[in-house]
Write a structure and sequence with these properties.
Number of strands: 9
Strand content: 15-25%
CATH superfamily: P-loop containing nucleotide triphosphate hydrolases
Helix content: 10-25%
Shape: globular
Distance between the termini: 14 Å
CATH architecture: 3-Layer(aba) Sandwich
Number of domains: 1
Radius of gyration: 15 Å
Structural class: alpha/beta
Largest sheet: 9 strands, mixed
Length: about 170
């Protein structure tokens, strides 16, 4: 088991969920066990309801947890740490985390249409699509192609953090 963890951050509707779904499908097709944790900062989590991100994540075949300030949607009705959630999943190869800017994981900021510099300090790489001019990316920021999941998987394999289950 690899047990590699990486986080994704960015503004609403930037493509975080779409990218995580693509990565999850590709990695699972290669035989890896993928777990996904989604942060719900507004405490509006509804798990597995059609049209919701958690439903879309679960459709990939991955284990899914939705984390909010007051609950974690597994079978618990209280919040949990990322480590407690990961323990519920057991062994895994990849842990993909959407949000949770305060946890110290290697992080890719996702942007479409416009950059938002409030995500730069907490990110190790920036992934954009063709709606962002490459010249607008701050100098020194590693730039990834949002539409190239293979490039992003390579970055994760090289930069993801070993995430031991305690």
């Amino acid at each position: 088991m690899k047990q590699i963890a990486v986080a994704f951050t960015g503004p609403s509707n930037s493509g975080k969920t779409t990218l995580i779904i693509k990565l999850s499908i590709i990695l699972q097709e290669r035989g890896f066990k993928v777990c996904i944790i989604k942060h719900d900062p507004h405490d509006k989590a509804i798990f597995d309801k059609e049209g919701k991100d958690s439903y879309r994540f679960s459709q990939t075949g991955a284990n899914v947890a939705v984390v909010s300030p007051t609950k974690t949607t597994i079978l618990k009705k209280e919040t949990a740490t990322i480590y407690e959630i990961a323990q519920c999943f057991g062994e895994f190869d990849y842990l993909l985390v959407e949000g949770l800017k305060t946890i110290p994981l290697p992080r890719i900021a996702i942007f479409r249409n416009e950059l938002n510099d409030k995500y730069f300090d907490c990110s190790d790489a920036i992934a954009t699509d063709e709606t962002i001019e490459a010249t607008k990316i701050p100098e020194g920021c590693l730039h990834l192609d949002l539409n190239n999941p293979e490039e992003i998987i390579k970055w994760i394999d090289q930069n993801g953090e070993f995430f031991p289950i305690l």
